[in-house]
What we know:
By secondary structure, the chain is α/β, with parallel strands linked by helices. It has helices spanning 25-37, 57-71, 86-99, 116-129, 140-143, 149-155, 171-181, 195-201, 215-226, 230-239, 241-246, 254-262, 279-291, and strands spanning 8-12, 42-45, 77-80, 103-107, 134-138, 161-166, 186-189, 205-208.
Amino acid sequence: xxxxxxxxxxxxxxxxxxxxxxxxxxxxxxxxxxxxxxxxxxxxxxxxxxxxxxxxxxxxxxxxxxxxxxxxxxxxxxxxxxxxxxxxxxxxxxxxxxxxxxxxxxxxxxxxxxxxxxxxxxxxxxxxxxxxxxxxxxxxxxxxxxxxxxxxxxxxxxxxxxxxxxxxxxxxxxxxxxxxxxxxxxxxxxxxxxxxxxxxxxxxxxxxxxxxxxxxxxxxxxxxxxxxxxxxxxxxxxxxxxxxxxxxxxxxxxxxxxxxxxxxxxxxxxxxxxxxxxxxxxxxxxxxxxxxxxxx
Length: 296
């Protein structure tokens, strides 16, 4: 058995930005502190929610460096280092390890994509180059390709491929994944609306967007599952389902940043091509935050 990177609720953290679009490191540090103080179990930096796709190479590295230094070992820091260029993914992964990242998150190649054989070669090349664990990221809705269960089973043979973030939204796939690979690889839900369903099947936690606005409650929901109290966990899953859905009313992380701004935290804007939220969706998100007592 491989060592588990974390049990519980990790946050796929946004990257706060100033009005001119530059990264606001002070606010990033503040957000990290708030998350840890409220029970968040790991920080995922430079993922999809962190807008890594519009960062410069230097910014990407600096964000990882900052998160590792600021977190200072309080919880694991998982660095997004995925790319559709294997050589670049290897380079960035090695540097993230040198910076002190505890683990890496690697999405499937996008746009050029590949075959399942190519996925095995791609992920194994990255895993061969580092000495920290890797979380595979299965999100076919964004990348245009998924990781087949047989491919995960093959990749799980590598000592450094330790987990998968499962965000296909397909519960049948997730069940088969855990049934066939669960003893060899940890599974984390990549969708907040499927935390309890996936954990009831054996997932170890979630990599969450909901944690931005409800860090303690998200942690508590996951902990209840870990404590085998699925009845109470289900109540929280249902209670917050409307807010979970509204945090994805537009392309992530547009609503997450807007929610934080509404709550008084200066998350700032997103970078183009992500644009300002529509007035209609702002009103719906605001109403959802009000229902849950997060704003007045």
